[in-house]
Design brief:
The chain has 28 helices and two strands. The chain is mostly helical and 509 residues long. The protein has a two-stranded antiparallel ribbon with strand order 1-2. Helix 4 packs parallel to helix 6 and helix 14 packs antiparallel against helix 15.
Amino acid sequence: MNQLKQIHANTIRNGTDFTKFLIIKLIDIPNIPYAHKLFDLIPRPTVFLYNKLIQAYSSHGPYRQCFSLYTKMLDRGCSPNEHSFTFLFASCAAISSPLHGQMLHTQLVKSGFECNLFALTALIDMYAKLGLLALARQQFNESKIRDVPTWNSLIAGCARCGDMDAAAELFAAMPERNVISWTAMISGYSQNGKYGNALSTFLEMEREKKVRPNEVTIASVLPACANLGALEVGQRIEGYAKANGYFENLFVCNAMLEMYARCGRIDAAMRIFDEIGSRRNLCSWNTMIMGLAVHGKYKESLELFHRMQREGTVPDDITFVGALLACTHGGMVSEGRKLFTSMDQNHSITPKLEHYGCMVDLLGRAGELQEAYDIIQSMPMKPDSVLWGTLLGACSFNGNVEFAEKAAEPLFELEPWNPGNYVILSNIYATAGRWDGVLKLRKLMRGGQIIKAAGYSFIEEGGKIHKFIVEDRSHQRSDELYGILDEVSTKMKLYGGLDNLDYFDEEVF
């Protein structure tokens, strides 16, 4: 920077014009305000320099400066070219302004650049990012020339809007794909909760061997592994990511950390956490605190919660969910109450539904059902089905019919289609010997045609995810599987494993 200032000083003293060179170098640093000051000293800037400055603002902001420069450009009689529109469309998407976008689209057509591939791709990308998929699709369909980025823009737009069927249809029709194409699909499936599709797309990408995953691909597929419990695939991805230097990317590290925590490999999660070291951000701390809490390591979770604050990281609302979960799993009612109170008093964090849910769970498990019910009643927001479901679950644990009925009443209104609520209340009635309640619920379910959905499990084997439904015989090796299951069941009975189980059969209906 000092060297550039010296060059600028020599330019002023000697009259040698290095202004263009200086502007480009300053933009590369970037020091955009300084570059803009030099730009303003030029009597008639070229379209190249306008574009360089517009591009800089479209990448770093403030984005509205792009439109000011465009207006000044037209006022000074400098005609924009196709690159001008490419950068301007990106700015429209950044500030979510369809009005600016459509006005510039009109200018693009008037300037005769509507057939330029780069400008057209930027236009489609802009409409897609603005959520105007119909306009994006119209431009795509009308374009005579398309390249891979053109397809990618529309696929990413469909994925962003949750239309994964349309994205998959476009993906299948692509004449050629690059890593961005695959990543857009994997990321889209993950962000829309279709984790099985995300993982299968990633595995298909691997099998084709035409494109290698990059760090964004890795960060996109790991949440799918985490949610599906696909530990084997996740471990293989870790090896690939480390071999390619992707652990320099904190998003990859945090995604790997979450994958191990979700899959129950707390030792591996802590190893990744330690490897991140001083690069840890709030997401890293939250993931580790939550992972420890969910898997019963409540002491370690709370120790990490306090350590985080000692090291200067300020907790957020997600941090407190993890800390309260730790209290729940440790039965630490008094500590939980203190943490909940400290959110607003010490950290200016207003408790959300999730925090109230944690407190209801904590108190419910401890048998403090009246206090748990009072918390729900005193909430500033309307309780949802998850909160009432938590109380109902606590009543099942404690065998309390009175509060179970209070929890079930709003649940039947909020989720009349959910058989689980009927089953839990029925089991509470049955345990208490209230067979009249069991019969009443059976009639309600039959009258409302509420059917209990079949339970299912995911099992990972050989890098593949297998789904099993209750009494499922569809798997090609089902005879072997049931043979092993019968063997395990027999051994459990021999060792008394089943005789000591305290449970009530859900088949009361």
